[in-house]
Amino acid sequence: MKIVVEKSQLAGEVAIPASKSHTIRAVLIGSLAEGVSVIESPLRAADTMSCVEVFRRMGAHIETDGDWLVHGLGGPPEGASDILDVGNSGTTLYLAMGTAALGNRWVTFTGDEQIRSRPAGPLLKALRDLGAECYSTNKDDKPPLMIKGPVKGGKTTLDGSKTSQYLSSLLLNCPLAQGDTEISVVDAAEIPYIEMTLQWLDEQGISYKRRGFEWFHVPGGQRYKAFRRSIPGDFSSATFFLCAAAVTGSEVMLLGLDMNDTQGDKAVVSMLSEMGAEVELLPEGIRIRGGNLEGGNFDLNSTPDALPSMAVTACFAEGTTRLYNVAQARLKETDRVAVMCAELSKMGARIEERPDGLVIHGSNLHGASVHGHGDHRVVMALAVAGLGAEGQTEIDTAEAVSITFPNFVELMKGLGAKMALSD
User: Fold this and answer.
1) Which parts of 117-190 fold into alpha helices (H)?
2) Among residues 12, 95, 312, 347, which one has the fewest Cβ atoms lying within 10 Å of its Cβ?
3) Which domains are present in the chain?
4) 28-52: pLDDT as tens digits
């Protein structure tokens, strides 16, 4: 499937879908909690439904009509189906690995081709340190992965430079371990996502101690309790609309976002403001007006998912933009640093790849046929590029948007985008 895009002017309001990261954490905690949890306004997309199916197979009963009802296990899973397929969801893979390690039965994690290329070595080592048995069937620290608990607690040192999800997996699951856990973290990345996990623990009354993001002590034998929680809008998804308004010189109102939330990608709002977009934070939402943009220097270590859309935005800015300290973007669904450099170059971008990011010089983009690489964020970012480029742009593997944002094209068209799906 392809997305076909032409240069457009946008206007109006758009309701941003719910946060994937919050939804998946809610499913995990609800599944381990005592009683029935209610997840209001969750994200219904391929990634979150993969998470639901994984926790169903671990024994939770989850109803997904309307608000989601999660009938929790009241503690660690007693067992699970032998094979857990996480689809394309890296978040589900890493967080559920820790949950599987609470049980006492062998479980195999697998997923699609992209998932089977995702590294899990640091988390596997940490789980082994804490008493679980686990290994990669291909001996490359990538899925398929086999895990058997139960984790007993203890001490481990964790490399946090590749993704925050390794640490979040331990923090979310170790409260239910048999004994206390001590985690020393080296080079913690994506700090806002760790803060999101800690916020969930705080709301649950989970006890822990920490020194910054470098050391954590988590007492074992704790329990989660049932909750009712409304899921806020997803700033990672909102980024595409914020950047679309910026590059097309349009005025758009984004609804459903909470600037007080822990999501890291809310920083894109201030990045675009620094580049020259006019931004208003209003009670009903965020209003953005595009204009004459100027390049800047942006550290994306805490916001790696913003790399594709910010790379596109930089093409439409005067001068040079540097996106740096985001080497972990190479380990997402694709190597997003290399992929964005290659595909935007096809559209006329003057762009240079660096080990930890991109250097982009203001360019006049033209339409082209580009490859979405089956990566939802790459596909959507290239569609935004097409909204500002002269001529027509075609992006293949457009079916990937269903991973996190099934109605992306529909919502863009509602703002006036000349955008359509094509077989």
Assistant:
1) 121-129, 165-173
2) 12
3) 2-17+233-422 (3.65.10.10), 20-219 (3.65.10.10)
4) 999 999 999 999 999 999 999 999 9
